[in-house]
Amino acid sequence: FIEDLDKIRVNMHMHSFTYDYHLRTIHSYVSGQQLLFKHGYHLTSFLDDFVKYYQKSPNYARNLIYAGSVVIPSVNVAPNQLYNYIIGHNKLYGMKVIRMVPVVCDSSSDLDTEYALVEISNKKVSYRDANDVQQTDSFFVGILTIHDTAPAFVEHNLLALGFYILLTSQRELFPKFSSTTGPPGTSSSGTAEGGGGDGSEGCFRPVRVLGGTPGTSQPTSAVPS
Q1: Which domain of life does this protein belong to (predicted)?
Q2: What is the pLDDT of residue 90?
Q3: What is the rounded distance in angstroms from the CA atom of residue 180 to the CA atom of residue 173?
Q4: What is the pLDDT of residue 121?
Q5: Is the distance from CB of 148 to CB of 161 less than 8 angstroms?
Q6: Rounded to two decimals, what is the model's pTM?
Q7: Structural domain boundaries of the chain?
């Protein structure tokens, strides 16, 4: 029974579905479509844990998240003053602001409320499928930006920004599929979801996005698909 259950998990691409579901949920939250989290939810703490667990997106996932950072010298204006200016004039830059209350276990801790900048747009992205055929799909693109106030940056007048890029498919809600014509755990390519396979018809592999889209060169993760 346990073996059959594991095969079902593989065939339904459970990890790919879970990965996509979480990213769609985050997109719904930051775009204001659904308030799934309470006001002040510390979203970037969740995203940090998420990208640590999924160093690479599962094989059959349609969505993608990439985290990075950028450091900009701020000579004439204090970094926090510059960031606060953007927060106060967010509509001028086509962004919205999300308030994040720190997760505090010690009531004596003195942590400030953080504010993240969010930009939502729609993009068409070109990529190549498993058969090296160029495809085009439409994605919701969400960019979250947060100010890193670590003393090392502040003391040297450096504006340090952490960012998260979310790509969420506009058309597809479910993971890529592989045809299963045999017993549970087998497919038309003769491999399970996490297997090597030869790319037979009906078995889709991770896409390669053109133009060096962030996240395509991340290290291989041990998380199954």
Answers
A1: Eukaryota
A2: 95
A3: 20
A4: 92
A5: yes
A6: 0.69
A7: 2-209
